[in-house]
Automatic annotation (TrEMBL):
Matching SUPFAM superfamilies: Glyoxalase/Bleomycin resistance protein/Dihydroxybiphenyl dioxygenase
Keywords assigned: Dioxygenase, Oxidoreductase
Organism annotation: Paenibacillus residui
Domain VOC positions: 7-131, 152-269
Protein name: Ring-cleaving dioxygenase
Pfam families membership: Glyoxalase
Keyword Oxidoreductase: yes
InterPro entries per record: Extradiol_RC_dioxygenase, Glyas_Bleomycin-R_OHBP_Dase, Glyas_Fos-R_dOase_dom, VOC_core
One GO MF term attached to the UniProt entry: dioxygenase activity
CDD domains on file: PcpA_C_like (cd08347)
Domain of life: Bacteria
Amino acid sequence: MSLQTAGIHHITAFARDPQANVDFYAGVLGLRLVKKTINFDAPEVYHLYFGDQAGSPGTIMTFFPWPNSRRGRVGGGQVGVTTYVVPPGTLEFWENRLKSFGISTVKQTRFGEEYVQFSDNEGLRLELVEREEGPNSEWWFGGIPAEKAIKGFGGAILFSTDAAATRKTLEQTLGMKKIGEDVGNTRYRASGQLGNIIDVPHSDIAMGAGGAGTVHHIAWRAKDFAEHVDWRVLAEEQGYQPTPLIDRQYFNAIYFREQGGILFEIATDPPGFARDEAPSALGEKLMLPEWYEPYRSEIEANLPPIEIRAMEGKQE
C-alpha cells in the first residue's frame, strides 16, 4: 500500500496561561481562534485552536494551556521549530511587528530562503518565511491586514533522536519526496500547498521533555475517512502500533510514535470546525462534545475566563 499526505493538518503544543496564549496567537500573530473547547481526556483544561478564517487543514495550531503545567525542554522527539508562511514582501512588516512587542528575532537562511525565528510567550520556537505558494488568509485582526496575514504553516523542523529513521518514515510511510540537503538539514516536500515543507537535521538530537513551550504532536492530513482507514492499515503494516480510530469531533485521528521519538497523528480533513458553529461565529462559545454537555456549568466554572483582544505594540 502506498499513500501520500498533503502535509501538516495541525500541530498541538503545551502552554500555561490561557489568556496569554490567546493574546499571543490571536493578538500578536493575528490568527483566528476557531475553536474553544476542552481536552477531552482532561476537561479541566482548555483545548484552543488557532488558524485561518475557517481553521483549514494546514493552518491549525492547537494548545492545551494548563496553568499548572511544568516547563518543557525542546529536544529530540518533538517538532523543534514550527514554520509559518506569509505572503511575499511582508517579512519586514512582521519583523517590525514582533519588535514592537519586544519579541527578539534572529534571521536564518536555509535552502535559499530567509527565515525570521522567534519564540512565543512560553518559549515555543517559531519562524516565518515568505512564499508565493498557498492561498492567502481571508482573516484580518488587530491591525494585520489580510494581505499581510499569516497564511498557515510553511512546515516544520523535526528534532529526532534517530534522524535516519525519521527521514525513512517521511518517505516510506507519509509518501513525502526528498528535495534536497542544505545547512545540515534534509528537506522533504508533501503534495499540498501549506504545511508541505519538512526539514530534518542530519544529527540525532537528545530527547527533550514535554511541558509548556514544547510540541506534543504533529498531525498529518488524510483526505477523507476512507483514506484514514488505509493510513491505519499502512502504519500497522510498517511495524508501528497505531491507536484505534478516535473521533475528535472536528476530525478523526490515529496516533503512533515513530522511531525518532516524535508522536505522529493522522487526522482527517473533514468534517471541520463548522460542524457545530456557524462559520461567522467560530471560537465564540465553549464547545463541548455531547458526553460533557450535562456537566457544562461545572466545566465552565472551573475554566479561567479568556477573551480575544487586539494587542498594541510599542512604536518607536
